[in-house]
Amino acid sequence: MLNRLDALKYFCIAAETLQFRETAVRMSVSPQVVTRMIAELEEELGTLLFVRNTRNMQLTEFGERFLPQAQQYLLNGEKLFATAKQKQSAMSGIVRITVPRLPENDAILADLAERCADYPELRIDWRVDAAKLHLVGNQIDIGLRIGFEPDPLMIIRKIVEMQDKFVISPLLLAKLGPPEDLEDLQKRFPVSNLINVDTGRSWGWPLNDELHLFPKQLRFSTDDPYSELSAALSGMTCSLIADYMCNEHIESGRLMELFSDIPRKCWQMYLYRPQRTMTSTHVLKVFDWLTEILLRYYKK
Hints:
Blueprint: H1 4-17, H2 20-27, H3 31-45, E1 50-52, E2 57-59, H4 61-89, E3 93-99, H5 105-116, E4 122-128, E5 142-147, E6 154-162, E7 164-168, H6 170-176, H7 182-188, E8 191-194, E9 205-206, E10 212-213, E11 218-222, H8 225-233, E12 239-242, H9 243-252, E13 256-258, E14 267-274, H10 281-298
Parallel strand pairs: 3-4, 3-5, 8-11
Antiparallel strand pairs: 1-2, 5-14, 6-14, 7-12, 7-13, 9-10
Helix pairs in contact: 1-2, 1-3, 1-4, 2-3, 5-10
């Protein structure tokens, strides 16, 4: 199948040099390739572009009329690519970002918006969702997630490690008395559990590699970590809450930590983007910006 753009390039150079051999040198191909390409273009157009003999060649009348049109077509194509490249380098386009709900979301977004202020053609699509969105279907460029194992097929930037903590309100602890151990906690205490939004099943309590419990006296379940935190703060439940969510409440005395001596598995907060053959300049820049912003908020 004829590549029309390439064929026009061969034709324009051949029209300039009036030599297929010189055209071949400029295009870094053999003279036979030039001869074949011109012949295919002439067949596509239904007429000759050159008249040739053993000593010289020249453009036909049609070839002379066709040459300025071909040159203009190639020039427009160069302008098209130059303009598109200039726009990309000028930070133009959309960046689709998915993040979980975090206490600092508003502040993080405000910092990112400040970075974007100098680039009016840069658009941000910001999705706050606990579910891991499909990268291709939702055309995700950048994601922020908290989990045990990042996808190895992604380009990852680790922000911080974090752990879960058993927390309870002072009021509920005073009412029931301190639990002797985890078994006592499961028997006597109303507890909450978080639902995995990707599977619809309970996360349970994944404490470490040897200990993964499932609550028995379940009083509250939800797919929203902040609703689970509210249940613990209200004195409704004893809950296993991520430290980045409950630390400030422990410091203020609104919550108390239980069993701090039990080893906990570490979660990772990480920024990721898909591995692609080419990633746009504006996506890479926003990826760098978000890395800097998140490290400022979460790096310990």
